[in-house]
């Protein structure tokens, strides 16, 4: 088949009439969305793994380097996927190999489990019991069709724990509607917008896993990067932070310890110059996440309150202001993102957009 790879008559574009070729960019956009979705879900799971491993081992006072981010053992962290279509299968394979999630900690509920033979051979349990999956998993990825979502929500909403994180890829169903359907607030939903310049960098002949090991493609998926013509709205990143706070609150962890832990976890990767002058590195303060009035009345040993993640992604928060006004913080998070995939940046490789981050 390698001999036929560049044969014109076998290319997708060959059968497209000339007048319709202006729409071919949609093929690249669809692939770009798939890669970005898998990349951001992988990054989210990596961070949660590391956070939970730290809490489980009572290491809140121990420095967490990027090495620990890549080597954390998520033995008690369980991930479920509802939907075994193209996105569900690609997501499962990416999480399995790039986080990596042990096969026994990853399950899929789909109407056609028999169609997922390759994933089952890898040790992933595939079945059609949505409620059972939700009661088992810590994070649930919704990879279903919009038309299927209402019935799925009816099936699963009573099985959700308060601490369960629902991560929705169903773009057609907005957060307020999803919150109502699930009667749940611990929900993340990434939103993407399209830039004016649509660049074909997504590697048409590469699998998603291989694409995310390509430095150019990986940097294009960075939350602050406009490359590739697809931009992640930064409210998702805020939701990730507040989700981490909720995990710590569920463990009744003092907010002062949480701030130290998150500073080490999220801000552990930076330029070499920061290592020479660590005082210039950002550290999280209580007022980065709550109002000054609330923070003033919160004793050192008290945990953070429980946050409604849907409200965090829909409204202005203290962290919105902090994140948008701190290029240094944006830079550190950019480095953390790339380093979690094994890619190191230098000052000559800027990724952060010079414009205002999209909210």
TrEMBL record:
Gene3D superfamilies xref list: NAD(P)-binding Rossmann-like Domain
Molecular-function GO term, any one: pyrroline-5-carboxylate reductase activity
Biological classification of the source: Eukaryota, Metazoa, Chordata, Craniata, Vertebrata
Natural source organism: Macaca mulatta
Family statement drawn from the similarity comment of this UniProt entry: Belongs to the pyrroline-5-carboxylate reductase family.
SUPFAM superfamilies: NAD(P)-binding Rossmann-fold domains (SSF51735)
Function: Probable oxidoreductase.
Signal sequence, renumbered to the chain: none
All copies of domain Pyrroline-5-carboxylate reductase catalytic N-terminal, residue ranges: 78-169
Keywords, in A-Z order: Oxidoreductase
Protein name, per record: NADP-dependent oxidoreductase domain-containing protein 1
InterPro entries per UniProt: NAD(P)-bd_dom_sf, P5C_Rdtase_cat_N
Highest taxon of the lineage: Eukaryota
GO BP, one annotated term: L-proline biosynthetic process
Pfam families: F420_oxidored
């Amino acid at each position: 088949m390698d001999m036929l790879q560049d044969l014109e008559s076998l290319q997708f574009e060959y059968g497209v009439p000339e007048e319709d070729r202006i729409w071919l960019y949609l093929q690249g956009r669809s692939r770009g969305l798939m890669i970005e979705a898998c990349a951001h879900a992988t990054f989210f799971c990596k961070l949660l793994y590391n956070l939970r491993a730290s809490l489980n081992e009572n290491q809140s006072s121990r420095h967490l380097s990027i090495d620990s981010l890549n080597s954390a053992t998520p033995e008690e962290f369980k991930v479920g996927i509802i939907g075994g279509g193209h996105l569900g299968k690609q997501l499962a394979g990416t999480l399995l190999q790039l986080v990596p999630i042990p096969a026994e900690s990853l399950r899929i509920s789909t109407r056609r489990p028999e169609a997922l033979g390759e994933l089952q051979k890898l040790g992933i349990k595939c079945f059609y019991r949505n409620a059972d999956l939700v009661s088992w998993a810590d994070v649930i990825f919704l990879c279903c069709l919009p038309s299927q979502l209402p019935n799925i929500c009816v099936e699963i909403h009573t099985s959700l724990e308060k601490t369960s994180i629902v991560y929705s890829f169903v773009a057609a169903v907005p957060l307020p509607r999803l919150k109502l359907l699930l009667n749940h607030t611990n929900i993340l939903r990434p939103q993407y917008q399209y830039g004016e310049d649509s660049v074909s960098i997504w590697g048409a002949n590469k699998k998603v896993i291989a694409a995310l090991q390509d430095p150019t493609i990986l940097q294009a998926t960075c939350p602050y990067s406009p490359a590739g013509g697809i931009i992640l709205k930064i409210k998702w990143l805020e939701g990730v932070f507040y989700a981490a706070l909720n995990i710590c609150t569920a463990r009744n962890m003092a907010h002062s310890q949480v701030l130290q832990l998150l500073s080490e976890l999220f801000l552990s990767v930076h330029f070499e110059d920061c290592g020479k002058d660590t005082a210039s590195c950002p550290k999280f303060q209580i007022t980065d996440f709550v109002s000054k009035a609330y923070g003033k009345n919160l004793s050192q040993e008290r945990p953070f309150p429980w946050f409604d993640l849907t409200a965090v992604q829909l409204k202005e928060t203290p962290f919105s202001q902090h994140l948008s006004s701190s290029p240094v913080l944006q830079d550190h998070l950019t480095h953390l993102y790339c380093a979690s995939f094994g890619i190191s940046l230098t000052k000559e490789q800027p990724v952060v957009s010079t414009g205002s981050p999209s909210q």
